[in-house]
């Protein structure tokens, strides 16, 4: 991300970063301490983008004032952030992200839905947008239906793509004519032109300009699919960011003032989270999956084979969208994670109460168990959607007519390889603020069902957006600050999970485990199919682990082959998962299911040891 020349070589000593969320504005202060950067304090305040304030900077100032008070140092001069740092006052750089006002909402187009349409969707998602719909020449809708859809949704901007360079131009021009006929009005105001980005066949640029330049705020950039075999998403993503600032954020209450405070463009919050995930994967040379489960949406990020993907499930969240989770997952899938029986009507009433009172938190163990059951399903469904979109390119480069191209709908293979996954990172209230960290680990294991050896971590206090925008700054010390704080303060390492993949009868031999602990002690045990075990191992400790799977089971070295590795500990420790089935198939008989869930809860230590039995909790829940 470009910055003023004088900042590029600056040795940054302190950073103030804010994230303007839909309900809360968070501010963090980072300082250089000896040879590394560390989080000093964090403050937060309600976001003020709506009435009666209608000025996002009021919430920013309130959050920064809390940081000032906690840090015991002056950062503000009236309503101005002091930059650069002067002595002990002010900060060297201020950056911000935002998803206030519903974030960035886009529509995308492509000639072939499963080819250029999906490439356009990946470009928009990677830039931090919510994709409201994909309009494609072969999507089965008539032109008037597409026009009506564009007018009804009123997106913030449209990404128009289609065709490879040098290919046919007629279909992408028809898409442009549909957008022109719709004459869409943007969500944040009808007084300015709809931003449209053209990132399609370069041969059609002049024709696209003829049809859209006078009706829309048209930007032309490089083709996102110059050939069948190659995607080129970054130019379109940069154009989306620029237009987001120029057209969308500029019309939101108080954002012009906010943009004047920072030399760095304000990034959409999801785009910033994706940036830090991508940065860590590249820095550590690992395969990563990250998830941010919010009140209205669940974002999933992945980096496999150096390819970054992001998806947003706009109807899967834990407060405003919680009823959608129930509707999409089904009551049976939610109830399978609850170790007691409740009437379906009772469950629905509890969930609808959460939807109409979205800021409430569980006040009893029963409510917590139900909410975490819903979280498992929201995460599972969001990850399934992500796997379907994080795929290799579809179609092949051949001399064909456009009608032949429409028949090239063979689905690309998913890039998500759970056996190759090195790190799984969770964020969002359900994961970051679970009463016990082991509950976060269990939710991720149940929802993502990782295979082989996988490290687990959570974002401690929602810092990933601020660190993501900082990682994009064209300054070496800014990037170092982002990675230092992410590793040392943001990411809480839960530990390492070892999961065997395979199938057997309940209780049959699954794997034999030998653990050499740092204090010289040895632990050896057999783990039968369908069971779990946890061993304490601190965050800064490693243990050499040998796992010998039974024939037909794989823990990362191949079926039946033993694996020896040094594994990292964490606040949860080492987890050995012999449940095998992918996906899990819990017992269908209610009593057996409850017994199995209680067995796993006891093995993992999900609840305090002095807690009354889950049977008693169940009895209380059904009163």
What would a concise description of this structure say?
It is built from 20 helices and 24 strands. The chain is of the alpha/beta class.
Characterization of this structure:
The protein has 623 residues and is of the alpha/beta class. It contains 20 helices and 24 strands. The strands form five sheets. An eight-stranded mixed beta sheet has the order 15-14-13-16-17-18-24-21, sandwiched between helices. A five-stranded mixed beta sheet has the order 3-2-1-6-12, sandwiched between helices. The longest helix is centred in the middle third of the chain and has 25 residues, at 365-389. The chain is globular and about 70 Å long. The N and C termini lie far apart (57 Å).
Brief descriptors of the model:
alpha/beta, 623 residues, eight-stranded mixed β-sheet, single chain, 20 helices, globular, five-stranded mixed β-sheet
Oligomer description: single chain
Helix coverage percent:
25-40%
Largest pleated sheet: 8 strands, mixed
Strand arrangement in the largest pleated sheet: 15-14-13-16-17-18-24-21
Total of DSSP H or I helical runs spanning 4+ residues: 20
Strand content: 15-25%
Query: What shape does the CA trace take?
Result: globular
Unreliable spans: 396-411
Report the average pLDDT across residues.
87
Intertermini distance: 57 Å
Number of strands: 24
Based on CA atoms alone, the radius of gyration comes out at 25 Å
Question: What structural class should be given to the helix and strand makeup?
Answer: alpha/beta
């Amino acid at each position: 991300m470009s910055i003023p020349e004088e900042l590029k070589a600056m040795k940054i000593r302190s950073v103030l970063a804010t994230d303007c969320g839909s309900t809360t504005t968070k501010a963090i202060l980072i300082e250089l301490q000896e040879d590394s950067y560390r989080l000093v304090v964090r403050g937060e305040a309600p976001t003020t983008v709506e009435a009666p304030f209608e000025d996002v900077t009021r919430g920013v100032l309130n959050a920064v004032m809390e940081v000032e008070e906690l840090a015991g140092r002056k950062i503000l001069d009236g309503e101005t952030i002091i930059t650069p740092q002067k002595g002990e006052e002010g900060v060297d750089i201020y950056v911000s992200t935002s998803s206030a006002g519903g974030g960035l909402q886009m529509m995308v187009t492509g000639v072939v839905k499963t080819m250029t349409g999906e490439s356009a969707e990946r470009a928009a998602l990677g830039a931090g947008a919510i994709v409201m719909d994909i309009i494609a020449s072969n999507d089965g809708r008539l032109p008037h239906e597409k026009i009506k859809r564009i007018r009804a949704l009123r997106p913030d901007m449209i990404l128009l793509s289609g065709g490879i360079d040098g290919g046919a131009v007629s279909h992408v021009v028809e898409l442009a004519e549909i957008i022109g006929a719709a004459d869409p009005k943007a969500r944040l105001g009808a007084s300015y032109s709809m931003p449209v980005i053209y990132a399609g066949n370069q041969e059609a640029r002049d024709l696209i300009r003829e049809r859209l330049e006078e009706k829309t705020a048209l930007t032309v950039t490089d083709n996102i699919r110059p050939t069948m075999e190659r995607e080129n998403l970054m130019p379109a993503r940069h154009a989306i960011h620029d237009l987001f600032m120029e057209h969308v954020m500029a019309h939101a209450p108080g954002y012009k003032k906010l943009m004047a405070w920072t030399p760095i463009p304000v990034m959409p919050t999801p785009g910033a989270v994706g940036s830090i995930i991508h940065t860590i994967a590249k820095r550590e040379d690992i395969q990563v999956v990250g998830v941010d489960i919010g009140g209205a949406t669940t974002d999933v990020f992945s980096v496999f084979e150096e390819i970054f993907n992001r998806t947003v499930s706009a109807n899967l969240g834990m407060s405003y969208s919680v009823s959608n989770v129930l509707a999409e997952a089904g009551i049976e899938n939610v109830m399978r994670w609850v170790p007691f029986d409740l009437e379906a009507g009772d469950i629905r009433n509890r969930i609808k109460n959460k939807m109409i009172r979205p800021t409430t938190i569980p006040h009893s163990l029963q409510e917590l168990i139900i909410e975490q059951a819903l979280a498992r399903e929201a995460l599972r469904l969001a990850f399934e959607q992500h796997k379907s979109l994080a795929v290799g390119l579809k179609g092949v480069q051949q001399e064909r007519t456009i009608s032949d191209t429409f028949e090239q709908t063979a689905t690309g293979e998913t890039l998500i390889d759970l056996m190759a996954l090195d790190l799984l990172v969770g964020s969002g209230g359900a994961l970051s603020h679970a009463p016990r960290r082991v509950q976060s680990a269990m939710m991720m294991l149940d929802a993502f069902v990782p295979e082989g050896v996988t490290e687990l971590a959570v974002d401690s206090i929602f810092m990933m957006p601020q660190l993501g925008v900082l990682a994009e700054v064209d300054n070496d010390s800014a990037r170092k600050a982002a990675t230092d704080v992410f590793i040392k303060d943001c990411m809480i390492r839960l530990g390492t999970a070892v999961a065997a993949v395979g199938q057997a009868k309940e209780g049959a031999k699954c794997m034999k485990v030998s653990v050499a602990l740092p204090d010289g002690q040895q632990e050896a045990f057999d783990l039968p199919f369908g069971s779990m075990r946890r061993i304490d191992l601190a965050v800064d400790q490693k243990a050499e682990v040998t796992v010998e799977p039974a024939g037909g089971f794989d823990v990362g070295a191949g079926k039946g082959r033993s694996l020896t590795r040094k594994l990292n500990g964490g606040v949860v420790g080492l987890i050995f998962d012999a449940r095998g089935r992918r996906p899990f198939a819990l017992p269908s008989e209610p009593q057996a299911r409850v017994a199995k869930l209680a067995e796993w809860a006891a093995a993992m230590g999900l609840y305090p040891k002095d807690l009354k039995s889950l049977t008693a909790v169940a009895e209380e829940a059904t009163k």
